[in-house]
């Protein structure tokens, strides 16, 4: 089990913001692998619907920096994914229609831009070994 920090976030009713969390991973935990994410948000005052306060996603893949597809390599498939989404933002797709994806936004500035592309191209080619 790896615990992330708890973060206080103000969310407007019906909103779905992107929240970045830092993980504190003990050295004995394998860095790479498939993980299940459990997220729980406590009830707020006067909240009646608690059914959506728990989120579980078993498709979480942890891998190396800029390895978009989780194959433990940074290659053309990864740089292409970033370049395809170039210019996208959470509220606007790229000019070719590709949607914004937070996993492509390496500097977390909510835009797929040159900084993200440069990072992947700088790491190309990389093989992450387990
Ligand atoms: Ca890859
Ligand atoms: Ca970015």
What would you say this structure looks like, in words?
The protein has helices spanning 76-84, 114-123, and strands at residues 33-40, 54-62, 73-74, 126-127. With 130 residues, the chain is α+β, with helices and mostly antiparallel strands. It has two domains: 1-62, no CATH class; 68-130, Immunoglobulin-like, CATH 2.60.40.4130. The strands form two sheets. The chain has a two-stranded antiparallel sheet. Strands 3-4 form a two-stranded antiparallel sheet. Helix 1 runs antiparallel to helix 2 (114-123). The mean pLDDT is 87. Bound molecules: calcium ion (CA) (2 copies).
User: What characteristic shape results from the CA principal axes?
Assistant: globular
The DSSP helix count reads 2
Q: Which bin fits the share of residues in helices? A: 10-25%
Instruction: Work out the number of β strands.
Output: 4
- Distance from N terminus to C terminus (CA atoms, Å) equals 19 Å
The CATH architecture of the largest domain would be Sandwich
The CATH class of the largest domain is identified as Mainly Beta
| β-strand amount | 15-25%
Structural category: alpha+beta
Bound molecules: calcium ion
Low-confidence stretches: none
Radius of gyration: 17 Å
Number of domains: 2
CATH topology of the largest domain: Immunoglobulin-like
Spatially, the strands of the biggest sheet line up as 1-2
Main sheet overview: 2 strands, antiparallel
Q: Could you state the order of secondary-structure elements as H and E? A: EEEHHE
Task: Please tell me the overall pLDDT.
Answer: 87
